[in-house]
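Supplementary Note 3. Input sequence used for the single-chain structure prediction.
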Amino acid sequence: MPLAQPAPDVWSLLAGLAEATPDAPAFIHGEERLSFARLLDQAGRAAQGLADLGVGPGDRVALWLPNVPAYPVLYFACARLGAIAVAVNTRYRAVEVADIVDRSGAKVLACAPTFRRIDFLSILADIDPAALDSLGAVVTVGDEPATAPPAIERLRRVPYDRLLSRPPLAANHARADAPCNIFTTSGTTSAPKFVLHRQRSIASHAQQVARVFGFDAPETVSLAILPLCGVYGFDQTMATFAAGRPSVLVESYEIDEIARLIALHRPTTLFGSDDLMARVLDEIPGERPLPSVKWAGYAAFNAALADLPERAEARGLILCGLYGMSEVQALYAQQPIDLPTAERKLGGGVPTSPLAHVRIRDPETGALLGPGQPGALECAGPSLMAGYYGNDRAAAEAMTSDGYVRTGDLAELDTRGGFTFLSRMGDVLRLSGFMVNPLEIETHVQEVPGIDGCQVIAVPSAVGVRAVAFVILKSGAVLDEAAVIAHSRRGLANYKVPMRVFAVAEFPVTPSPNGPKVQRGKLREMAEALIQRQS
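The predicted structure, written as C-alpha cells, is reproduced below.
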C-alpha cells in the first residue's frame, strides 16, 4: 500500500514502505522475492560499501546493469549516500560507455560481467584508460568470466556481495534537493546530454503516478520489461514501488520468457513500445494473450503499427497513449482510458500531476496558441529536471524564464485539459510553407503493397523543399517508385507527395532504452547524396 503521507525524498520513500509493509515483495526476479525490509537492509549495506570505495554526497555511480535486484539496491544506496546514479544502457559499448564515464566523472561503475554472454570486462578493457581516470572501482554483479583481459587489471574490481557484507551506513545523506539521477538523452544529432533529477522530483512523481494510474490497487503486479536504465522503465517501476506493489524484473525482450512470466505472475500492468506490444500480440497465442492486464501504456514509434491499438483491443488488451521524456520524466501524461480508441491511442494526454501545466507556442511568432493549433510544446510541473549535468548552457536554452521545459515536440492542446503529441519538432517537415507531420506521409506510403517500413525527411531542391521517402521492402518485393508516388498523389496534397523514394535494407538508428531511434539527419544526408549522384 502507498504511504499515508508523501515521502519528500527517495530514501524516505523506501524507509516508509519498509516500515509499513516490511514483508511484502518489492521486486521479484526468478526465485528471489526481495521484500521492502530486505531491500532497505541491502541498500544500507551497499551504501556503506560504496562509501568504503570513496563515494560520498554528489559523487556519481554508473549503473551499467540489466533489470536485476542489484539495480534498485544500488540505486537506493546512492540515495542514502546523496550520490547520483548514472544510468548506462547495457547495449552500449566501449565508445558510449567511455563518453558517459568520462563526462560524468563516475567514481564507481557497476556491471554484470557475463549478462547474456556479453563480455563487459573486455568492453571496459578496450576503453582508453584516460577516459576512466575518475573510476576508482568496478563493482561486479554475479560471476566473472574464467579469464579476464589483462588490460582490465588496471581497474579495481569489487564483488557486489562484498558491498552487502558491510554494516548498513549509519549516516543518512538523502535530501529532497539532492541530485540523484542522471539519464542520458538519445543523442541522435549530438552527444547525449545528461538529464539531472533531484530526489524531490523522483519521489513526488513516483507517488503521483502510483495514485493516478491506479497502481495502489491491492492486486497490482507490474511487469518491468523496459530497462531500468531508461526513464520509461525506471518511472514505471518506481511508481509501482511507491504504491507498495511488486515489480517482476525482466532481463530481456525474449517473448518466450515474457510469456512465461505473464502466465506465472499474472501482471495487471505493463508498458512498452509499439514494437514490443506487437511482438507480444503476434507471438503469444490465444484470444486474450494478457488476460490479467487491465490496460497497458505504449509509445508509438513505428508508423507501420498505426493499427496496433485496434488489433490489441480485438484481443482484449486496451492500449493508452502516454507522454514523457527524460527532462519531464516518463508518464508525465496519459490519455484517458474512456476515450474512443482513435483518440486514446495518440501520444499525449492529461498531465499526471495537478501541478503540471502545458502550453503550445507558435515556433515562429512566439505567441501562445489555443486548442487545435499545432505548435511547440512546453511543460511545467514537479517532475521536471534540475538541469543538464555539466552543461548549464544547454539547460538555459531548454528552460523558459518562468520554469517551463522547451520539449522540442510538436503538439496541440485539446479541450479536455490535455494535449496531443504530433511529432518531434526536428522531424516536422516544412513543405510549401506548411508544417507537416512526417508520420502522415509515412502511414500513407506504407499502404503500398510490399512496403514494410517508411521514413520521410525533407531536402532542398530546385523547386523548393520537398519530401523524400526511404522504405524497407518486404521479402521478395521490388520497389516501384512511380507507383508509390502515384499512390501518394491520390491521397495527399501535392506538396506532401515524396519527390523521390529510395529502398534501403535498414534505417540508420541510435540505440536507446526504449528501442532504436531513427537518425533522420543521416537520412537527409543520404537523400542529398543519392539525388546528387543521380542528377
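Residues 253-426 form a domain with the Rossmann fold fold (CATH 3.40.50.12780). Residues 36-52 form the longest helix (17 residues).
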